């Protein structure tokens, strides 16, 4: 069970800094999902899951409806999902996921953040081998279901780890099996409270407090950009911060 837990601890899920950024990020995801699979959540599992995420984050219903409506407007060309990979200072691998309506602006901004903070942007695909692409489902605990039984049941659906955290059960599975896992959970009466796609590093690297401070500045700059959806890295968290 170790690696996903280490990843979760290391990432610290800063929730994108503030509520406005959360809603912007979720709005883009909802628009992309509605554009790709249609505006009806009943027939679009990914959209259905994202609407649940929005509910958990207390995103106003009007914002959700606007994001869906935008996807079907005639003059809307859509967001392009682009990934950027590079190394921060001290050899730390950084994977940046974006959703943008202007790739020229986005790549220029991302490159400038790397350059100004002692890093360098690499070529597409250069860091894929350092991260495992996973889907993650958070579900409410259910009476009479053990984690072991659930994990055994879900192995055939591409799930490789089941963990618990306070009131939730957290399920990690292969990215490509996202739809199959969601279908199983919905058909078997599990309440999905939220879901996401993550990139879990194969190996976490230790850094000194001074190095961490410099890396945090780069990561925060990336996360503050409106085009950036997610930032993943392979920095090992300082054990002294576990109790924060």
From TrEMBL:
Iron as UniProt keyword: no
UniProt cross-references to SUPFAM superfamilies, sorted A to Z: YebC-like
Domain TACO1/YebC-like second and third: 79-235
GO molecular function, one term: DNA binding
Recorded superkingdom: Bacteria
Start and end residues of each TACO1/YebC-like N-terminal domain: 4-72
Subcellular location: Cytoplasm
Bilayer-crossing regions: none
Keywords: Cytoplasm, DNA-binding, Transcription, Transcription regulation
HAMAP family: Transcrip_reg_TACO1
Listed PANTHER family: TRANSCRIPTIONAL REGULATORY PROTEIN YEBC-RELATED (PTHR12532:SF6), TRANSLATIONAL ACTIVATOR OF CYTOCHROME C OXIDASE 1 (PTHR12532)
NCBIfam families: PRK00110.1 (NF001030), PRK12378.1 (NF009044), YebC/PmpR family DNA-binding transcriptional regulator (TIGR01033)
Family to which the UniProt record says this protein belongs: Belongs to the TACO1 family.
Name of the protein this chain belongs to: Probable transcriptional regulatory protein GGQ57_000959
């Amino acid at each position: 069970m170790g690696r996903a837990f280490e990843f979760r601890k290391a990432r610290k899920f800063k929730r994108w800094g503030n509520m406005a950024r959360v809603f912007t990020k979720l709005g883009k995801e909802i628009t992309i999902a509605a554009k790709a699979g249609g505006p009806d959540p009943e027939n679009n599992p990914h959209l259905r899951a994202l609407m649940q995420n929005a509910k958990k984050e207390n995103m106003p219903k009007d914002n959700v409806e606007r994001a869906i409506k935008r996807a079907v407007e005639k003059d809307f060309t859509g967001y392009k999902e682009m990934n950027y990979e590079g190394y921060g200072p001290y050899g730390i691998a950084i994977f940046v996921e974006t959703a943008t309506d202007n790739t020229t602006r986005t790549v220029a901004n991302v490159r400038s953040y790397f350059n100004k903070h002692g890093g360098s942007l690499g070529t597409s695909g250069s860091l894929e081998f350092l991260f495992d692409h996973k889907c993650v489902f958070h579900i409410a605990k259910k009476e009479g279901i053990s984690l072991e039984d659930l994990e055994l049941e879900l192995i055939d659906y591409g799930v490789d780890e089941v963990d618990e955290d306070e009131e939730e059960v957290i399920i990690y599975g292969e990215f490509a099996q996202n739809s199959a896992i969601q279908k199983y959970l919905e058909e078997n009466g599990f309440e999905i409270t939220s879901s996401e796609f993550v990139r879990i590093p194969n190996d976490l690297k230790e850094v000194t407090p001074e190095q961490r401070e410099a890396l945090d500045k780069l990561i925060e700059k990336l996360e503050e950009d409106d085009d950036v959806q997610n930032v993943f890295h392979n920095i090992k968290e300082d054990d002294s911060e576990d109790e924060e």
